[in-house]
Design goal:
alpha+beta; Guanine Nucleotide Dissociation Inhibitor, domain 1; eight-stranded mixed beta sheet; three-stranded antiparallel beta sheet; 21 strands; globular; binds flavin-adenine dinucleotide
Protein backbone atom coordinates (compact mmCIF):
# COMPACT_ATOMS: atom_id res chain seq x y z
CA UNK A 1 0.00 0.00 0.00
CA UNK A 2 1.75 3.16 -1.20
CA UNK A 3 -1.03 5.67 -1.49
CA UNK A 4 -0.78 7.36 1.90
CA UNK A 5 0.46 10.55 3.52
CA UNK A 6 2.17 11.16 6.86
CA UNK A 7 1.50 14.61 8.35
CA UNK A 8 3.59 15.81 11.30
CA UNK A 9 3.07 19.06 13.17
CA UNK A 10 6.70 19.62 14.22
CA UNK A 11 9.77 20.49 12.15
CA UNK A 12 11.10 16.98 12.73
CA UNK A 13 9.54 13.51 12.78
CA UNK A 14 9.56 11.30 15.85
CA UNK A 15 7.37 12.94 18.52
CA UNK A 16 8.56 11.87 21.98
CA UNK A 17 11.22 9.72 20.27
CA UNK A 18 12.95 12.71 18.65
CA UNK A 19 16.63 13.49 19.15
CA UNK A 20 18.76 16.61 19.45
CA UNK A 21 22.37 17.46 18.75
CA UNK A 22 25.06 19.19 20.79
CA UNK A 23 28.49 19.83 19.26
CA UNK A 24 29.98 16.80 21.04
CA UNK A 25 27.21 14.29 20.24
CA UNK A 26 23.62 13.59 19.31
CA UNK A 27 21.36 12.91 22.28
CA UNK A 28 17.78 11.80 22.99
CA UNK A 29 15.00 14.30 23.75
CA UNK A 30 12.77 11.56 25.16
CA UNK A 31 12.74 7.82 24.40
CA UNK A 32 16.22 6.39 24.70
CA UNK A 33 16.08 2.57 24.41
CA UNK A 34 14.20 -0.50 23.29
CA UNK A 35 14.62 -3.82 25.10
CA UNK A 36 15.83 -6.46 22.64
CA UNK A 37 12.58 -8.17 21.59
CA UNK A 38 11.79 -11.78 22.36
CA UNK A 39 11.64 -13.97 19.22
CA UNK A 40 7.89 -14.37 19.79
CA UNK A 41 7.43 -10.66 18.93
CA UNK A 42 7.59 -11.53 15.22
CA UNK A 43 6.20 -8.28 13.87
CA UNK A 44 8.64 -6.19 15.89
CA UNK A 45 11.55 -8.36 14.73
CA UNK A 46 10.37 -7.83 11.15
CA UNK A 47 10.42 -4.08 11.66
CA UNK A 48 13.95 -4.23 13.08
CA UNK A 49 15.02 -6.41 10.15
CA UNK A 50 13.51 -3.88 7.76
CA UNK A 51 15.40 -1.07 9.47
CA UNK A 52 18.77 -2.88 9.39
CA UNK A 53 18.94 -3.28 13.18
CA UNK A 54 18.71 -7.08 12.84
CA UNK A 55 21.43 -8.00 10.35
CA UNK A 56 21.07 -11.76 10.07
CA UNK A 57 19.91 -15.03 11.65
CA UNK A 58 21.82 -18.04 12.94
CA UNK A 59 20.95 -21.58 11.77
CA UNK A 60 18.39 -21.83 14.60
CA UNK A 61 16.66 -18.70 13.28
CA UNK A 62 17.79 -16.48 16.14
CA UNK A 63 18.18 -12.81 15.27
CA UNK A 64 21.62 -11.28 15.14
CA UNK A 65 21.78 -7.57 15.92
CA UNK A 66 24.14 -4.95 14.53
CA UNK A 67 26.78 -4.85 17.30
CA UNK A 68 26.65 -1.05 17.60
CA UNK A 69 22.96 -1.18 18.56
CA UNK A 70 23.37 -3.35 21.69
CA UNK A 71 24.32 -1.40 24.82
CA UNK A 72 27.84 -2.61 25.63
CA UNK A 73 28.84 -4.01 29.03
CA UNK A 74 28.07 -2.00 32.13
CA UNK A 75 24.46 -1.25 31.28
CA UNK A 76 23.46 0.27 34.61
CA UNK A 77 24.80 1.28 38.02
CA UNK A 78 23.18 2.87 41.06
CA UNK A 79 24.51 5.27 43.65
CA UNK A 80 23.88 4.59 47.32
CA UNK A 81 25.48 6.72 50.06
CA UNK A 82 27.84 8.29 47.49
CA UNK A 83 29.19 4.93 46.26
CA UNK A 84 28.32 3.52 42.84
CA UNK A 85 27.36 -0.17 42.57
CA UNK A 86 26.77 -2.30 39.45
CA UNK A 87 23.17 -3.11 38.50
CA UNK A 88 19.98 -1.48 39.70
CA UNK A 89 19.24 -3.38 42.95
CA UNK A 90 20.49 -1.53 46.07
CA UNK A 91 21.62 -4.74 47.77
CA UNK A 92 24.69 -3.40 49.54
CA UNK A 93 24.17 -3.65 53.29
CA UNK A 94 20.93 -5.67 52.98
CA UNK A 95 20.01 -7.68 56.07
CA UNK A 96 19.27 -11.43 55.76
CA UNK A 97 15.57 -10.59 56.15
CA UNK A 98 15.77 -8.10 53.27
CA UNK A 99 17.63 -10.62 51.13
CA UNK A 100 14.98 -13.26 51.87
CA UNK A 101 12.24 -10.81 50.91
CA UNK A 102 13.99 -10.07 47.62
CA UNK A 103 14.23 -13.82 46.89
CA UNK A 104 10.48 -14.19 47.62
CA UNK A 105 9.72 -11.33 45.22
CA UNK A 106 11.79 -12.87 42.42
CA UNK A 107 10.10 -16.26 43.03
CA UNK A 108 6.73 -14.48 42.86
CA UNK A 109 7.63 -12.94 39.49
CA UNK A 110 8.80 -16.33 38.21
CA UNK A 111 5.49 -17.88 39.25
CA UNK A 112 3.51 -15.19 37.37
CA UNK A 113 5.58 -15.65 34.22
CA UNK A 114 3.32 -18.17 32.51
CA UNK A 115 0.17 -18.64 30.50
CA UNK A 116 -3.30 -18.12 31.93
CA UNK A 117 -6.11 -20.70 31.63
CA UNK A 118 -7.06 -19.17 28.25
CA UNK A 119 -3.66 -20.21 26.81
CA UNK A 120 -2.38 -16.64 26.54
CA UNK A 121 0.62 -15.31 28.44
CA UNK A 122 -0.42 -13.48 31.61
CA UNK A 123 1.76 -10.51 30.60
CA UNK A 124 2.85 -9.76 27.07
CA UNK A 125 3.23 -7.10 24.42
CA UNK A 126 0.97 -5.60 23.33
CA UNK A 127 -0.74 -5.54 26.71
CA UNK A 128 -4.25 -5.98 25.26
CA UNK A 129 -3.29 -9.38 23.80
CA UNK A 130 -2.46 -10.81 27.25
CA UNK A 131 -4.55 -13.40 29.08
CA UNK A 132 -7.58 -12.06 30.94
CA UNK A 133 -6.50 -14.06 34.02
CA UNK A 134 -4.85 -11.28 36.04
CA UNK A 135 -6.66 -8.23 34.73
CA UNK A 136 -8.28 -7.61 38.09
CA UNK A 137 -4.81 -6.50 39.26
CA UNK A 138 -5.36 -3.38 37.20
CA UNK A 139 -7.95 -2.23 39.73
CA UNK A 140 -5.46 -1.76 42.60
CA UNK A 141 -2.29 0.23 42.99
CA UNK A 142 1.16 -1.38 43.12
CA UNK A 143 1.55 0.01 46.64
CA UNK A 144 -1.55 -1.94 47.76
CA UNK A 145 -0.39 -5.05 45.95
CA UNK A 146 3.02 -4.96 47.67
CA UNK A 147 1.27 -4.48 50.99
CA UNK A 148 -0.83 -7.55 50.21
CA UNK A 149 2.36 -9.51 49.46
CA UNK A 150 3.97 -8.26 52.67
CA UNK A 151 6.84 -6.50 50.89
CA UNK A 152 8.27 -4.05 53.41
CA UNK A 153 11.95 -3.74 52.43
CA UNK A 154 12.70 -0.15 51.39
CA UNK A 155 15.25 -1.53 48.90
CA UNK A 156 12.73 -3.58 46.99
CA UNK A 157 10.07 -0.89 47.20
CA UNK A 158 12.53 1.68 45.84
CA UNK A 159 13.53 -0.59 42.96
CA UNK A 160 9.91 -1.24 41.95
CA UNK A 161 8.99 2.43 42.39
CA UNK A 162 11.98 3.35 40.21
CA UNK A 163 10.75 0.93 37.50
CA UNK A 164 7.30 2.60 37.53
CA UNK A 165 8.73 6.12 37.43
CA UNK A 166 11.16 5.15 34.66
CA UNK A 167 8.57 3.44 32.42
CA UNK A 168 5.45 5.48 33.20
CA UNK A 169 6.38 8.62 35.14
CA UNK A 170 4.25 7.35 38.07
CA UNK A 171 5.05 6.23 41.62
CA UNK A 172 4.00 2.94 43.24
CA UNK A 173 0.88 4.69 44.54
CA UNK A 174 -0.07 5.99 41.09
CA UNK A 175 0.64 2.87 39.02
CA UNK A 176 -1.78 -0.03 38.74
CA UNK A 177 -0.39 -3.34 40.01
CA UNK A 178 -0.95 -4.85 36.55
CA UNK A 179 1.06 -2.11 34.83
CA UNK A 180 3.92 -2.42 37.34
CA UNK A 181 4.08 -6.21 36.92
CA UNK A 182 3.92 -5.67 33.15
CA UNK A 183 7.27 -3.89 33.40
CA UNK A 184 8.90 -6.99 34.89
CA UNK A 185 7.06 -9.70 32.93
CA UNK A 186 5.76 -8.53 29.54
CA UNK A 187 8.98 -9.63 27.85
CA UNK A 188 9.28 -12.73 30.06
CA UNK A 189 10.95 -12.96 33.45
CA UNK A 190 14.63 -12.33 33.08
CA UNK A 191 17.01 -14.20 35.34
CA UNK A 192 19.95 -12.22 33.99
CA UNK A 193 18.78 -8.70 34.57
CA UNK A 194 19.36 -6.35 32.88
CA UNK A 195 18.07 -7.81 29.61
CA UNK A 196 20.07 -6.70 26.53
CA UNK A 197 19.01 -3.25 25.41
CA UNK A 198 19.09 -1.57 22.02
CA UNK A 199 20.14 2.08 22.16
CA UNK A 200 21.71 4.74 19.98
CA UNK A 201 23.38 8.11 20.76
CA UNK A 202 20.09 9.95 20.22
CA UNK A 203 17.98 7.10 21.53
CA UNK A 204 14.94 5.89 19.62
CA UNK A 205 15.29 8.83 17.22
CA UNK A 206 17.50 6.45 15.25
CA UNK A 207 14.50 4.13 14.78
CA UNK A 208 12.20 6.93 13.62
CA UNK A 209 14.95 8.24 11.29
CA UNK A 210 15.34 4.82 9.71
CA UNK A 211 11.56 4.47 9.31
CA UNK A 212 11.40 7.90 7.66
CA UNK A 213 14.25 6.99 5.31
CA UNK A 214 12.32 3.86 4.22
CA UNK A 215 9.54 6.26 3.14
CA UNK A 216 11.99 8.36 1.13
CA UNK A 217 11.99 11.24 3.62
CA UNK A 218 15.12 13.38 3.67
CA UNK A 219 15.16 15.78 6.63
CA UNK A 220 17.35 18.44 5.01
CA UNK A 221 15.52 18.47 1.64
CA UNK A 222 13.46 21.55 0.65
CA UNK A 223 9.82 21.29 1.67
CA UNK A 224 7.75 19.55 -0.99
CA UNK A 225 3.97 20.05 -0.47
CA UNK A 226 3.25 16.84 -2.40
CA UNK A 227 5.70 14.65 -0.46
CA UNK A 228 4.38 11.48 1.14
CA UNK A 229 5.91 12.52 4.48
CA UNK A 230 5.33 16.15 5.39
CA UNK A 231 6.68 17.88 8.50
CA UNK A 232 5.39 21.32 9.65
CA UNK A 233 1.89 20.05 8.79
CA UNK A 234 -0.70 20.77 11.49
CA UNK A 235 -3.88 18.76 11.06
CA UNK A 236 -6.60 21.27 12.04
CA UNK A 237 -9.85 19.57 11.14
CA UNK A 238 -11.18 16.13 10.29
CA UNK A 239 -14.66 15.29 9.12
CA UNK A 240 -14.78 11.66 10.29
CA UNK A 241 -17.67 10.69 8.03
CA UNK A 242 -16.41 12.13 4.74
CA UNK A 243 -12.72 11.53 5.48
CA UNK A 244 -12.03 15.18 4.68
CA UNK A 245 -8.92 16.38 6.46
CA UNK A 246 -7.58 19.91 6.57
CA UNK A 247 -3.99 20.74 7.42
CA UNK A 248 -1.96 23.92 7.60
CA UNK A 249 1.37 23.42 5.81
CA UNK A 250 4.17 25.74 6.90
CA UNK A 251 7.43 26.43 5.12
CA UNK A 252 10.82 26.83 6.73
CA UNK A 253 10.34 30.53 7.52
CA UNK A 254 9.04 30.73 11.11
CA UNK A 255 6.99 33.81 10.12
CA UNK A 256 5.21 31.88 7.36
CA UNK A 257 1.49 31.66 8.29
CA UNK A 258 1.18 28.53 6.17
CA UNK A 259 -1.22 27.29 3.56
CA UNK A 260 -4.48 25.50 4.31
CA UNK A 261 -4.87 22.32 2.24
CA UNK A 262 -7.65 19.75 2.14
CA UNK A 263 -7.05 16.05 1.65
CA UNK A 264 -9.51 13.26 1.24
CA UNK A 265 -8.84 9.87 2.85
CA UNK A 266 -10.70 6.59 3.08
CA UNK A 267 -8.92 5.80 6.34
CA UNK A 268 -7.18 8.07 8.84
CA UNK A 269 -4.82 6.71 11.52
CA UNK A 270 -4.72 9.25 14.34
CA UNK A 271 -1.19 8.64 15.69
CA UNK A 272 -1.14 11.95 17.59
CA UNK A 273 -2.06 12.32 21.28
CA UNK A 274 -5.69 11.39 21.88
CA UNK A 275 -6.49 14.58 23.80
CA UNK A 276 -5.88 16.65 20.64
CA UNK A 277 -8.46 14.74 18.59
CA UNK A 278 -11.64 16.40 19.95
CA UNK A 279 -10.24 19.80 18.91
CA UNK A 280 -9.94 18.75 15.27
CA UNK A 281 -13.09 16.63 14.87
CA UNK A 282 -15.77 18.58 13.01
CA UNK A 283 -18.37 16.58 14.95
CA UNK A 284 -17.15 16.73 18.53
CA UNK A 285 -20.24 14.92 19.76
CA UNK A 286 -19.11 11.82 17.84
CA UNK A 287 -16.18 11.34 20.25
CA UNK A 288 -16.98 8.24 22.38
CA UNK A 289 -14.92 9.77 25.20
CA UNK A 290 -17.15 12.86 25.34
CA UNK A 291 -19.64 11.71 27.98
CA UNK A 292 -17.31 9.24 29.70
CA UNK A 293 -17.22 9.06 33.49
CA UNK A 294 -14.53 6.96 35.11
CA UNK A 295 -10.74 7.11 35.34
CA UNK A 296 -9.79 9.72 32.74
CA UNK A 297 -6.65 9.59 30.64
CA UNK A 298 -3.97 11.63 32.43
CA UNK A 299 -0.39 12.36 31.43
CA UNK A 300 2.86 12.71 33.39
CA UNK A 301 5.09 15.73 32.74
CA UNK A 302 8.83 15.09 32.34
CA UNK A 303 11.96 17.19 32.44
CA UNK A 304 14.76 15.94 30.19
CA UNK A 305 18.10 17.69 29.72
CA UNK A 306 21.22 16.80 27.81
CA UNK A 307 24.44 18.11 29.27
CA UNK A 308 27.73 18.41 27.45
CA UNK A 309 30.74 17.77 29.69
CA UNK A 310 34.47 18.33 29.28
CA UNK A 311 35.14 14.89 30.74
CA UNK A 312 33.29 11.62 31.34
CA UNK A 313 31.60 11.44 34.75
CA UNK A 314 33.49 9.29 37.23
CA UNK A 315 32.48 8.44 40.77
CA UNK A 316 33.67 6.11 43.53
CA UNK A 317 32.96 2.43 43.03
CA UNK A 318 31.50 0.86 39.92
CA UNK A 319 32.65 2.59 36.70
CA UNK A 320 30.47 4.72 34.45
CA UNK A 321 27.59 2.72 32.92
CA UNK A 322 25.14 3.58 30.14
CA UNK A 323 22.39 4.29 32.73
CA UNK A 324 23.42 5.87 36.06
CA UNK A 325 20.77 6.05 38.77
CA UNK A 326 20.85 7.69 42.20
CA UNK A 327 18.86 5.78 44.84
CA UNK A 328 16.00 7.61 46.58
CA UNK A 329 16.04 10.82 44.59
CA UNK A 330 13.25 12.46 42.60
CA UNK A 331 15.30 12.20 39.44
CA UNK A 332 16.19 9.00 37.57
CA UNK A 333 19.83 9.94 36.91
CA UNK A 334 21.27 10.04 33.43
CA UNK A 335 22.11 7.94 30.39
CA UNK A 336 25.35 8.52 28.49
CA UNK A 337 24.77 9.38 24.81
CA UNK A 338 28.46 8.84 24.06
CA UNK A 339 28.59 5.43 25.82
CA UNK A 340 28.74 3.34 22.65
CA UNK A 341 31.62 5.25 21.09
CA UNK A 342 34.27 3.14 19.55
CA UNK A 343 37.39 2.73 21.70
CA UNK A 344 39.44 4.27 18.92
CA UNK A 345 37.41 7.49 19.38
CA UNK A 346 39.73 9.52 21.56
CA UNK A 347 37.77 12.77 21.63
CA UNK A 348 37.48 14.06 25.20
CA UNK A 349 34.20 14.86 26.89
CA UNK A 350 30.76 13.27 26.99
CA UNK A 351 27.07 14.08 26.62
CA UNK A 352 24.73 12.78 29.30
CA UNK A 353 20.93 12.96 29.28
CA UNK A 354 19.16 13.60 32.60
CA UNK A 355 15.60 12.37 33.27
CA UNK A 356 13.08 13.51 35.87
CA UNK A 357 9.37 12.68 35.82
CA UNK A 358 7.29 15.20 37.77
CA UNK A 359 5.10 12.78 39.70
CA UNK A 360 1.93 13.72 41.62
CA UNK A 361 -1.57 12.45 42.27
CA UNK A 362 -4.07 12.95 39.43
CA UNK A 363 -5.40 16.46 40.09
CA UNK A 364 -2.03 17.79 41.31
CA UNK A 365 -0.20 16.57 38.22
CA UNK A 366 -1.66 19.53 36.32
CA UNK A 367 -0.03 21.89 38.82
CA UNK A 368 3.33 20.22 38.30
CA UNK A 369 2.89 20.54 34.53
CA UNK A 370 2.19 24.27 34.91
CA UNK A 371 5.25 24.59 37.16
CA UNK A 372 7.43 22.86 34.54
CA UNK A 373 6.20 24.97 31.65
CA UNK A 374 6.15 28.30 33.51
CA UNK A 375 9.71 28.55 34.82
CA UNK A 376 12.34 29.84 32.43
CA UNK A 377 14.89 27.50 30.88
CA UNK A 378 17.87 28.76 32.88
CA UNK A 379 16.02 27.85 36.09
CA UNK A 380 15.65 24.29 34.82
CA UNK A 381 19.19 24.00 33.52
CA UNK A 382 20.47 25.20 36.93
CA UNK A 383 18.25 22.60 38.59
CA UNK A 384 19.68 19.83 36.37
CA UNK A 385 23.29 20.83 37.02
CA UNK A 386 22.57 20.89 40.78
CA UNK A 387 21.13 17.37 40.62
CA UNK A 388 24.15 16.13 38.64
CA UNK A 389 26.45 17.80 41.18
CA UNK A 390 24.68 15.91 43.97
CA UNK A 391 25.85 12.71 42.23
CA UNK A 392 29.24 14.07 41.14
CA UNK A 393 30.48 16.96 43.31
CA UNK A 394 32.35 19.51 41.17
CA UNK A 395 30.79 18.36 37.88
CA UNK A 396 29.40 21.88 37.40
CA UNK A 397 32.91 22.97 36.36
CA UNK A 398 32.83 20.40 33.53
CA UNK A 399 29.56 21.61 31.99
CA UNK A 400 29.87 23.38 28.63
CA UNK A 401 26.24 23.27 27.39
CA UNK A 402 22.80 22.25 28.62
CA UNK A 403 19.84 21.53 26.32
CA UNK A 404 16.53 21.35 28.22
CA UNK A 405 13.35 19.66 26.95
CA UNK A 406 10.06 20.10 28.81
CA UNK A 407 7.38 17.53 28.04
CA UNK A 408 4.03 18.73 29.37
CA UNK A 409 2.17 15.53 28.39
CA UNK A 410 5.06 13.10 28.14
CA UNK A 411 3.44 9.78 29.01
CA UNK A 412 -0.01 8.36 29.57
CA UNK A 413 -0.30 7.35 33.26
CA UNK A 414 -1.45 3.74 33.84
CA UNK A 415 -3.32 4.63 37.04
CA UNK A 416 -5.49 1.92 38.62
CA UNK A 417 -8.45 1.07 36.41
CA UNK A 418 -7.14 2.61 33.20
CA UNK A 419 -5.64 -0.29 31.23
CA UNK A 420 -8.69 -2.52 31.01
CA UNK A 421 -11.36 0.02 31.80
CA UNK A 422 -13.90 1.69 29.60
CA UNK A 423 -11.88 4.88 28.94
CA UNK A 424 -9.19 3.25 26.79
CA UNK A 425 -11.69 1.09 24.94
CA UNK A 426 -13.54 4.29 24.02
CA UNK A 427 -10.28 6.13 23.25
CA UNK A 428 -9.26 3.45 20.73
CA UNK A 429 -12.68 3.03 19.12
CA UNK A 430 -12.96 4.18 15.48
CA UNK A 431 -14.86 7.40 14.81
CA UNK A 432 -16.08 7.17 11.20
CA UNK A 433 -12.91 6.62 9.16
CA UNK A 434 -10.64 7.80 12.00
CA UNK A 435 -8.81 5.21 14.12
CA UNK A 436 -6.87 6.59 17.15
CA UNK A 437 -3.67 4.56 17.57
CA UNK A 438 -0.86 6.52 19.31
CA UNK A 439 0.82 4.98 22.33
CA UNK A 440 -1.46 6.83 24.78
CA UNK A 441 -4.58 4.90 23.74
CA UNK A 442 -2.75 1.70 24.76
CA UNK A 443 -2.29 2.98 28.34
CA UNK A 444 1.51 2.43 28.35
CA UNK A 445 4.01 4.79 26.70
CA UNK A 446 6.34 2.20 25.22
CA UNK A 447 7.77 1.87 21.72
CA UNK A 448 6.44 -1.69 21.45
CA UNK A 449 2.90 -0.69 22.45
CA UNK A 450 2.88 2.18 19.91
CA UNK A 451 4.23 -0.14 17.24
CA UNK A 452 1.61 -2.85 17.76
CA UNK A 453 -1.15 -0.27 18.03
CA UNK A 454 -0.09 1.25 14.70
CA UNK A 455 0.17 -2.15 13.00
CA UNK A 456 -3.26 -3.17 14.25
CA UNK A 457 -4.86 0.10 13.10
CA UNK A 458 -3.14 -0.16 9.71
CA UNK A 459 -4.35 -3.76 9.28
CA UNK A 460 -7.91 -2.66 10.08
CA UNK A 461 -7.64 0.16 7.55
CA UNK A 462 -6.33 -2.20 4.86
CA UNK A 463 -9.19 -4.62 5.55
CA UNK A 464 -11.67 -1.76 5.18
CA UNK A 465 -10.12 -0.87 1.82
CA UNK A 466 -10.45 -4.48 0.67
CA UNK A 467 -6.68 -5.03 0.90
CA UNK A 468 -6.64 -7.09 4.09
CA UNK A 469 -4.15 -9.91 4.63
CA UNK A 470 -3.27 -12.26 7.48
CA UNK A 471 -2.51 -10.31 10.66
CA UNK A 472 1.11 -9.93 11.72
CA UNK A 473 0.05 -10.06 15.38
CA UNK A 474 -0.88 -13.53 16.65
C1 LIG B 1 10.79 11.50 28.36
C2 LIG B 1 10.33 10.27 27.65
C3 LIG B 1 11.11 9.12 27.71
C4 LIG B 1 10.68 7.96 27.06
N1 LIG B 1 11.50 6.86 27.07
C5 LIG B 1 11.14 5.75 26.39
C6 LIG B 1 12.05 4.68 26.24
O1 LIG B 1 13.20 4.75 26.66
N2 LIG B 1 11.62 3.57 25.57
C7 LIG B 1 10.35 3.48 25.04
O2 LIG B 1 10.00 2.44 24.45
N3 LIG B 1 9.49 4.51 25.14
C8 LIG B 1 9.85 5.65 25.78
N4 LIG B 1 9.01 6.72 25.80
C9 LIG B 1 7.69 6.61 25.13
C10 LIG B 1 7.85 6.65 23.60
O3 LIG B 1 8.49 7.83 23.21
C11 LIG B 1 6.52 6.54 22.88
O4 LIG B 1 5.78 5.50 23.42
C12 LIG B 1 6.72 6.22 21.39
O5 LIG B 1 7.68 7.04 20.80
C13 LIG B 1 5.44 6.33 20.61
O6 LIG B 1 4.89 7.61 20.65
P1 LIG B 1 3.74 8.02 19.63
O7 LIG B 1 4.33 8.15 18.26
O8 LIG B 1 2.59 7.09 19.76
O9 LIG B 1 3.25 9.43 20.17
P2 LIG B 1 4.03 10.81 20.28
O10 LIG B 1 5.47 10.60 20.50
O11 LIG B 1 3.27 11.61 21.26
O12 LIG B 1 3.88 11.45 18.83
C14 LIG B 1 2.72 12.10 18.42
C15 LIG B 1 3.03 13.03 17.26
O13 LIG B 1 1.83 13.68 16.86
C16 LIG B 1 2.18 14.98 16.45
N5 LIG B 1 0.96 15.82 16.44
C17 LIG B 1 0.24 16.27 17.50
N6 LIG B 1 -0.81 17.00 17.09
C18 LIG B 1 -0.76 17.02 15.74
C19 LIG B 1 -1.57 17.64 14.73
N7 LIG B 1 -2.65 18.36 15.04
N8 LIG B 1 -1.21 17.48 13.42
C20 LIG B 1 -0.11 16.73 13.08
N9 LIG B 1 0.68 16.13 14.00
C21 LIG B 1 0.36 16.27 15.30
C22 LIG B 1 3.21 15.41 17.48
O14 LIG B 1 3.95 16.52 17.02
C23 LIG B 1 4.03 14.14 17.63
O15 LIG B 1 5.12 14.11 16.75
C24 LIG B 1 9.43 7.92 26.39
C25 LIG B 1 8.64 9.08 26.33
C26 LIG B 1 9.10 10.25 26.94
C27 LIG B 1 8.27 11.48 26.85
Amino acid sequence: MHDFRVLELEDALGGTARGGELPRSRHPLGAHYLPRPEPRFHALERLLEDLGVIIGRDPAGRAEYAPSTIVAASVERHQLDRIWYAGISPEHGATPAEQAEAERWYAHLRALDREGPDGRRQFTLPSWRASAALRELDAISMRDYLQRLGVTSWRLRWEIDYACRDDYGCTLEQTSAYAALHHFLARGYDEDRPRPLLAWPDGNAELTRRMAARLGYIAAAPVDPHARVRTRAAVVSIDPDRGALRAVLRGEDPEDPGELVELSARAILWAAPRFVLPYVLTARGRDPLAGHRGPAMSYSPWLVASVELLDRPGGIGSPLAWDNVPVQRDNLGYVVATHGEDRSDTRPGAVVTYYEPLTAETPAVATRRAELLAGDLSRWSDHVVRQLAAMHPGIERQVTRVSVTRWGHAMIRPVPGLLFGDALARARAPIGVVRPCATDVTGLALFEQAFYSGVEAAEEALARLGRGAASMIP
